[in-house]
Amino acid sequence: MPQLESTAIEYMPQLASTTIDLICRSCYQRQLSIFRAFLLLFVSFSLLLISFSFRCFVADRDIGVVLLRFSSPFGGFSLSNLVSIMSVSTIPMICYYNGQMLRTKTDVTYEGRKAVISPMDIPIKCTFEELIGPIYSKTNIDKRRFRLSLNCKYPLRSGNRFQPFPIQDDSSLCRMLNLVNTTSIEEIELFIEVVRVKGLLNQSVGGHVDLFVRDNYNVAQPDYGCGPSSSPIPDIGPNGDDGDDEDCADDGGNDEDVDNECNENTDVEVDEHASSFGYFNQILENEHGIYVFAEAPCCDVSNHPDEETLDESSPFNFHLPPTPQFEHVENLDNAVASAWTPWVPHSSGYSSGEFVIGQVFNSKSDLQDAAKIYSIKAHQEFIVVASSKKLLVLRCKKVEECNCPWKLRAMVVKDTSLFVINKYTGPHTCVNPCLNRDHHQLDSNLVATHIKSLIKAQFTLTTATIQVSVMERWGYQISYKKALDGKHKAIRQLFGDFCQSYTELPRLFLGIEQSNPRCVVIWKTCEINVPNTEIFQCVFWSFKPSIEGFEHYRPIMSIDGTHLYGKYKGKLLIAMGCDGNNQLFPLAFAITEGENTDSWGWFLACIRNGVTKRTGICVISNRHPGIMVAMSDPDLGWAAPSAYHRICMRNLASNFMTRFKDKILKNLVCRAALATTERKFNKHMHTIGRINSEALQWLEAIPVHLWALSHDGGRRYGLMTTNISEVFNSVLKGARCLPVTALVQLTFFCLNGYFVARREVSANRLASAEQFTPYVDAQLQGRVVKAGSMEIVLYDHVKGLFHVKSRRGRTHRLNLHEKNCTCGKTLIYGFPCSHMIAACQHRCVDFRLFVEGYYSTQSYYNTWASLFHPIFNEDEWPLYDGPTIVPPDSMQRMGSERPRSTRLHNEMDVREGKTSITCGLCKQPGHNRRSCLNRNQL
């Protein structure tokens, strides 16, 4: 009991004062009602009274016992519990060091190949200085060379979200320690990052002095010239002597913008006394966290939260850069080699966000991007004084108007592509009278760097989306042309040059054939007067797995063409099949100058000669004149009976709608085309003739077997449109604006993805002894249910003649021996209709015998069984010794403007069942906001 009394006397006032402090803070933040505050205040004063009683009447044992037995009426919180809680003198903490903190949108993590996790207990009354000492001892960090950047994982009120909270003084440390009492956190997570002490950069290291630039060189000069009179480049050699300046005029230095120059670093000469890059690189590697890499798409190298995630209870009170619109947009990957990023001012210890003398960049282009981003964030502009392969000098654009001292000078490190800042004067002292909508340094090159990751994720990225992304990132509205130029440059940087891709295409096919033999590639070129050079006309390719798989599914093929939208015009021709599971099967591709009779004839001839000799193939297409001529040419091998041509129903209905503009008639045409019996077909045609005799004559002029399912003879297996080709066109939609080499590679990887996924599905079904594909299984199950309610009358058990009456009273005649039913569905689809299933069940015959072999699981597996093999590295590809392929001038688009659509839009481009447009202002149908009469009033 005496020990309990002494403990209560010691901690009771602290508990009361802590409770009062929490009450005041909660009331200020409107987290506690007035009534509850008064109740808690009453408890606090009661605790103070108890403490006073202990001190005044400690000798009186009876009073002490009575007070110890006192319990609060608010929740039964006994004094013994209070004493046990207040007796805790340390708080558990987990320290992370030897790594780097990464912040995502909802969490904070700590990563690093050598990261260490160490538990630690700190006193509850610890100060900031008392915390720093044990951390230095535990991590073995030299406090003379490095300082610590501490951040704790701080919870936010909005959901299960965390942000970093910097620990810089006693106040922030106290707030971190209170997390254990105010939240459900049991252990505090402390992230430790190391920053080199700035003064150490000028000290000698290992016998070499002045590795980085001395402070006395950071002097404002009247001008950075390009001759011998220019300010000296500081020495980076071991002897400490200044080297002679580079003659900028000899190296091509100029005052032009650096955006369009080559960033190559060849034949660079620096002073012979300059230190070796090996030692320079060793110094950089010894610094903890000096390299900044944003590897994860959602990671932010900064230690600060997003502005939108902060609430009134958050401890962060500094201004933050705007959050990018897209979460997967990376910062400039590997842009800054040292631990400084200009768009995140406080992330690496430089509180001003300025450049630093001795700062190293991976290349000249990275330095240029960093300078541009710095200027954009500061809403300032600079001009290029000198720029060459080994020197870059920048100064403020308003140096003559406002005498702004901002200047930057950087030079290349010998035998490397690194650029180091050797002179810098900043920040800007000039003031802009107004803020422009655009920024001079926000050019198309920076836009291209910004949207690279977006282009990788989405080839179909629109120019308007790029404008919005730049606006969200930097707050400037760039022009449409600048956004389009940035997109083209990003595509060139990621996928190569458009013109050069035609030259590289033959070697790419050699690389594909090296690991995937028996692929078919057929060229069509035109010779010119230039030696060893030919003009591109057409190229056809088909992969070996597609050629082998085509033999195992239904003899049906859909062909279609689509436009290319890159720098060069052209058409992409596609031939698609359909497997036993009604899934598309890419068969062959071709790039041609245009879509005409010659190109379609050449494409179909390549398929017949290089892909398949199979007869009886049904070819579904639109009514393009080139296709119609090629299909009827007996020399090409696609005339009946080698192949059978059919017309896309949707294309026919679109042409009909364009001609007669009547939706009722159009629907009747579709019903006539989909009718499975001649009786239904004749009924719909008669209705069309009664409404419009001219429309009937227009339809009768087209051979009925080309578009009517009832007259098809089971050739098209119920496929009425070219949707399987158009679906794959949509898959390649983004790639159609890429160079041809990227387009070919995308077809290779897309097909490999199809084969891998569907090979696994078919193998699993084969292993589980499934007899048919999922599509046919579902169809048969539904028809078995319908067959259970039908009436069957047997007429001849030898010939298998039956009379079947459905639940609706319709009657059909069928012959099991001939696999024929008057409903026509068995012949059309290749598996039994519900009437045939009912007859088979009546005679105890297995109806699965009437399913064609193309729908079996074995055929399904054989279709996707062939393998694609990985392509070797480009340096391992065989050498191409043929003529150089160049694109024709007629295919090149004029200028860099937006490519105009050459598609002839019709009613097929309007979604079926789409309602009329609605105004966004008045919400009334029939017009848009641009033509709204109330536009000026709202």
Structural commentary:
The chain has 938 residues and is of the alpha+beta class. 35% of the residues lie in helices and 16% in strands. The protein is built from 27 helices and 24 strands. Strands 13, 14, 15, 16, 17, 18, 19 and 24 form an 8-stranded mixed beta sheet that branches. Strand 22 (811-815) and strand 23 form a beta hairpin. Helix 12 packs across helix 13 (480-495) and helix 23 packs antiparallel against helix 27 (857-863). The radius of gyration is 39 Å and the shape is extended.
In short:
With about 950 residues, the protein is of the alpha+beta class. The chain has 27 helices and 24 strands. It is about 35% helix and about 15% strand.
Keywords:
single chain; 938 residues; alpha+beta; eight-stranded mixed beta sheet; five-stranded mixed beta sheet; 27 helices; 35% helix; extended
Form type: extended
Count of runs of 4 or more consecutive helical residues: 27
Portion in strands: 15-25%
| Main sheet makeup | 8 strands, mixed
How would you summarize the topology of this molecule?
Layout: H1 2-28, H2 34-56, H3 61-68, H4 79-86, E1 90-97, E2 100-103, E3 108-111, E4 116-123, H5 128-139, E5 146-155, E6 162-167, H6 170-177, H7 179-182, E7 188-196, H8 277-286, E8 360-361, H9 364-378, E9 382-387, E10 391-396, H10 399-402, E11 407-412, E12 419-425, H11 444-457, H12 463-474, H13 480-495, H14 498-515, E13 520-527, E14 533-542, H15 544-549, E15 556-563, E16 571-578, E17 584-592, H16 597-611, E18 617-621, H17 625-632, E19 643-647, H18 649-660, H19 663-674, H20 678-691, H21 693-700, H22 723-731, H23 740-767, H24 774-787, E20 791-796, E21 801-805, E22 811-815, E23 820-821, H25 825-829, H26 834-842, H27 857-863, E24 884-886
Parallel strand pairs: 1-7, 14-24, 15-18, 18-19
Antiparallel strand pairs: 1-4, 2-3, 5-6, 5-7, 8-12, 9-10, 10-11, 11-12, 13-14, 14-17, 15-16, 16-17, 20-21, 21-22, 22-23
